[in-house]
Structure formats: structure tokens, C-alpha cells
Specification:
mainly beta; elongated
């Protein structure tokens, strides 16, 4: 169960700014954690993820993307908790 919000704003005809946020709750009923040596009948995870990106299209055939993303997962199984941050950039050429 969860939701995602993902607005995109066209600042100009060549620049777009995007944001995405996802919230999700999951139940893992009856799945054991034998891979880490823990027997459990129920595990619950809550995830929150976000991403902020900028796309620049200097030419019709070229896209430059840069983004920052992050998130966290909280679990009733402490071995499955984590936080993360990521940065990225892409350069794409389209030959049509």
C-alpha cells in the first residue's frame, strides 16, 4: 500500500524540473528470514523515497539529466533497515 507524487515543471522549452516522492508500506506475512538466521512470522517495512531532477535539452537530439535521490526503509527486522543517497547524470543522444 502506498502512493507516489511526481510533478514535472517545464521551466522553458529546453529545461524541465521534476520531483518524485513515494511512500509505501508492505507486510510480509508468513515469510521467514532464514537467509539471515531469524525465524519470524511477520515483517513490516515502510519506505520513503524521493528524487529531484533537472533535464536540459540544448538540441532536439540531446538530453542532459542530473538528479539527486534518497530514501529510507524502516523494518520490524532491524537487519533490513537502510538509508541511501544517490547522485547521477546522464547524457543521451537520439538518432532518429
Amino acid at each position: 500500500k502506498g502512493f507516489t507524487i511526481e510533478p514535472i515543471w517545464s521551466v522553458t522549452s529546453k529545461v524541465q524540473v521534476s520531483f518524485a516522492y513515494t511512500h509505501e508500506k508492505r507486510d510480509f506475512r508468513g515469510i521467514s528470514n532464514l537467509d539471515v538466521g531469524i525465524e519470524s512470522s511477520t515483517r513490516k517495512n515502510t519506505r520513503d523515497n524521493y528524487r529531484l531532477g533537472v533535464n536540459y535539452q540544448p538540441r532536439r537530439y540531446m538530453d542532459i539529466d542530473m538528479y539527486y535521490g534518497g530514501g529510507e526503509r524502516d523494518s520490524t527486522d532491524n537487519l533490513r533497515d537502510f538509508d541511501y543517497n544517490s547522485f547521477g547524470a546522464n547524457l543521451t543522444f537520439n538518432f532518429r
